[in-house]
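Handout, section B. The chain below has 252 residues.
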Amino acid sequence: MQVAVAGGTGLVGKYVVAELRAAGHRPVILARSHGVDLTTGVGLADRLSGSQAVIDVTNIVTTRKKPAADFFSRTTGHLLLAARSVGIEHLVTLSIVGSDEVDFGYYLGKRVQEELVRDGGVPWTVLRATQFFEFPEPLLDNRSPVVVMPRMLTQPVAARDVAEKLVEHALQGPSGMAREIAGPDRLNMVDMARRIVRSQGRRRLVVPVTLPGRVGRAMTTGGLLPRGQYVQGRRTFEDHLASLGRATPTGR
């Protein structure tokens, strides 16, 4: 089976591509480095031709509503248009647990994306995932001795577990809003960041900050936790820390 992966060079996308290949399927990467610009649609229809399904794990690094909404409106709109034109049978989209409850800028962009997918005329599945184990790492990946980290109560999940579930959905067929996926343990993002720092032998002062207003209250009181029945990832945060310890020299 040929499956296109939008954002196939990113964190989750690389795992999705690897999982498809391991299962004997043919991934087609949709990314600028592979001749496709999802923000403009250039090269998209030609690259999609021959695929039966699309897994969309595109992403933008922003906390603001307008850039997030603009990005997901453009990329999802172009993806849906091209998918209809070439007869794609299934679109699987990655979203976020709590995106419909927490009025955070990026999450508002994901709401726009979900709405477009639901009304896009292509059979669909939306999988919402909690924050990844890797979430604190970009904020820690600088030379500053002090790192500000938002207070967030979450049930973080391994990006690889999410990738495996996305591929499973793509091969099974459309299911609409799928059961959410989360990790096995509830953790605070500030504590996660501090444990990452210790596991890698770094010297960083992690300073917690609560986002203002209803957004901050929602993030710290369960707004980002899965609701009802959900799929539990099999990898733990301890597994993730162990992998970081192996990959990163002490004293970095």
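Note. The chain is about 40% helix and 20% strand. Compare this with the example in section A.
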